[in-house]
Specification:
Elements lengths: L2 E9 L9 H9 L3 H9 L3 E3 L15 E9 L14 E5 L3 E6 L16 H7 L24 E7 L2 H12 L4 E9 L6 E5 L2 E3 L7 E3 L7 E9 L3 E8 L6 H8 L14 H6 L7 E9 L6 E5 L4 H12 L2
Parallel strand pairs: 6-13
Antiparallel strand pairs: 1-3, 2-3, 4-5, 5-6, 7-12, 7-13, 8-11, 9-10, 11-12, 13-14
């Protein structure tokens, strides 16, 4: 988390002689005792030039120097223009974008990189205020490592309707994935609940007590080492395609988090999971007409697919 530091220094008056350093700091700098103790334990305090313990005592004339970090809210939206985000469609209700790899949809704890909502704010887009402050207008998400088409709502009406459309599974979500090996059968449906991985909270897994998750796939191309699949999501769980394909023992090429072969990934020049959101179809919230938006493969995925084809 980035921080702005406020530097302060004060001498201990006679009336505070013998007090603990955290208690003296609380009175001198207007801090809570807990905050003062935290600053001492985190190394932000010097007492006569030396880092004290929070229970050390102060003497008249002692110099207390403190650096008070003003922590930045990790969920605050930071307006900035993000290179690589393309606007596919824009009207009064929605904006459809082509998200590049390496961009999160919205701020989250631990993520310090660029975000879609930050880009839209930086580019002057006004988006719906529905949802939590850091993800206002967001009705769907793509992983940081997944590229492709997604929609963000600009009006409250659009947010309400599209939120329900995603919830009621009436949105057509089409992905392309290159997976290791050849799924058997070549087309099918994976109906397996997904929950938080029991041993790694950054991962998900097929779990008996997970949330219902349904993935439909068909093989478009079968190559020597890998297959290109078209995938339709009936549900929209976090990491759904990655988890389901890994459970079939056919992880997305390059998806080291979910068991992909790093040697194969390197051979085909894949530095992230080979997964791209190709098409998004839904009923437009204003016109009621069915609309569809599409994204082509980004350069890195297109190049690796050609390498896979050439390896036959």
């Amino acid at each position: 988390m980035s921080e702005v530091v406020d530097q302060r220094a004060l001498s201990v008056p006679d009336g505070m002689a013998g007090e603990r350093v955290d208690a003296a700091m609380a009175r001198l700098f207007g801090l809570s005792r807990t905050r003062a103790a935290d600053l001492v334990s985190q190394g932000y305090v010097l007492l006569d030039g030396t880092a004290p313990g929070k229970s050390d005592r102060v003497f008249p004339g002692s110099l207390i120097e403190v650096s008070i970090p003003s922590t930045v809210d990790p969920l605050a939206v930071r307006p900035e223009i993000v290179e690589g985000i393309k606007i596919i469609h824009d009207d009064d209700s929605i904006v459809v974008i082509d998200k590049p790899v390496g961009v999160a949809v919205h701020p989250s704890p631990g993520w310090h990189g660029p975000t879609v909502v930050g880009h839209l704010a930086g580019a002057g887009f006004r988006i719906a205020t529905g949802g939590a402050s850091e993800r206002q207008g967001i009705v769907q998400r793509l992983d940081v490592g997944t590229s492709g088409v997604m929609v963000i709502c600009k009006s409250e009406h659009a947010y309400s309707l599209l939120k329900n459309a995603f919830r009621n599974r009436t949105v057509d979500k089409t992905y392309h994935a290159v997976v290791q090996g050849h799924p058997d059968p070549l087309e099918g449906t994976i109906d397996a609940p997904i929950g938080r991985h029991p041993k790694a909270d950054y991962k998900f897994a097929v779990m008996a007590d997970g949330r219902a998750s349904v993935t439909h796939y068909e093989t478009l191309e079968a190559h020597r080492f890998a297959s290109l699949l078209e995938v339709h999501l009936e549900t929209g769980r976090t990491h759904q395609i990655r988890v389901h394909m890994s459970a079939l023992k056919h992880p997305c090429v390059g998806d080291l988090t979910y068991g992909a072969d790093p040697v194969l990934a390197k051979r085909f020049g894949v530095e992230r999971q080979w997964l791209h959101a190709m098409r998004l179809g839904f009923e437009h919230p204003d016109t009621g007409k069915q609309v569809e938006y599409e994204s082509s493969y980004p350069d890195d995925l297109a190049a690796s697919l050609e390498t896979i084809r050439d390896a036959d």
